[in-house]
Amino acid sequence: MEKRPTPRPRHNQVAGAAGYGEAVPGQVVVGVDGGGTKTDAVVVDARGELLAFASAGPSNWESVGRRAMAEAVATAVRAALDMAAVAPDDVAASAFAMAGFDWPSDRERIDPALVALGLSGPRLLVNDAFAALRAGIRHRHGCVSIAGTGGSNAGRNRRGDMFRTFAGSIGEPAGASSILHEALEAIARAHFAQRGATELAPRFLAATGAATVDELFEGLARGGVRAGPELAPLVLDAASGGDDAAQEIARHVGARHGEAVIGVARRLGMLDDTFEIVRAGGVHSARNPQLDAAFLSVIESAAPLAEVLVLDVPAVLGSALLALELLGDGRTADAAHDLLTTGFAASKSTVPQ
After folding, report:
1. pLDDT tens digits for 125-135?
2. Which of 170, 141, 25 is nearest to 86 (CA)?
3. What does the DSSP assignment read for 152-188?
4. Do 137 and 238 reside in the same domain of the chain?
5. In what order do the strands lie in the sheet with 39-45?
6. Considering its fold, how many domains does the chain have in total?
7. Domain range holding 178?
8. pLDDT in tens, 298-312
9. What is the mean pLDDT of the chain?
10. CA 305/CA 7 separation, integer angstroms
11. At 341, is the secondary structure helix, strand, or coil?
12. For 132-178, what is each residue's pLDDT tens digit?
């Protein structure tokens, strides 16, 4: 049975930082979630109280380069530290969950930017999937299925072993990108009279400005027509409306995401254990009934003891919890989870989602 945490107010996106409380020097940690669209940084005290939240530009070095990555991380971290009135050498620990940290060789590309921040205490560098995982799970073991523009899966078992998929659309689905690919294939197959008509064709024509299916695919092949993952909601909406082709796509993509995260749990020996599976990303939060049912069916069949949750807090809070784990045996982070993940919603300040 899938559970969704108690809904929390959705905050407006703001530039700069939001302050929450007073820091105790030497008892604060810094968490960073660096992604392809923005970089979030938080300062949190040892109990899990959120002291400051700041955002900057994208920091996936693969797309923006190493210099821009370093600048974005530094901007977000310094803004959060300034808001919390904390000096870099007052930080007890820090954790950075960075998009683009995909292979061991990437450490040498990212680490220099983190060292330059001058933060004291131990420092953890992980892929950004682990921030979403830790933000969602209430304890230290569980799995995450991410289905946004792309897709990835990660997990950690009770022993602390960690595993993550490639997030490269090879051997696993890719969220909205997979939905788009399958929708275009369905439109083409209907056009070739290999299957019945689908509402996806007129929806895609209206969205792209193409007059005919031929013009749509000519524009995709030769330029002039843009059809990106942002069109995935059209497919899920058509599925909810009863279109057969769209429903087939939603079920197939949902089942594949379920199989991918179950694969992570299998690698980590978790299938017979009780653990939480976190669903993160726009595709998972869209609440499409066909996709959700297919995903949950796979989970319930392969991991009947698993509890499925939908992430509705910023992933950067998971980075802060990972930093808190560096301070002890992990029980501090477990105890801090509820305070941290609910405290930001109670604040009058704004926190970007």
Report:
1. 999 999 999 99
2. 25
3. EEEEE-TT--EEE---SSSSS--HHHHHHHHHHHHHH
4. yes
5. 16-19, 50-56, 39-45, 28-34, 91-98, 123-127
6. 2
7. 129-314
8. 999 999 999 999 998
9. 90
10. 24
11. helix
12. 999 999 888 999 999 999 999 999 999 999 999 998 778 999 999 99
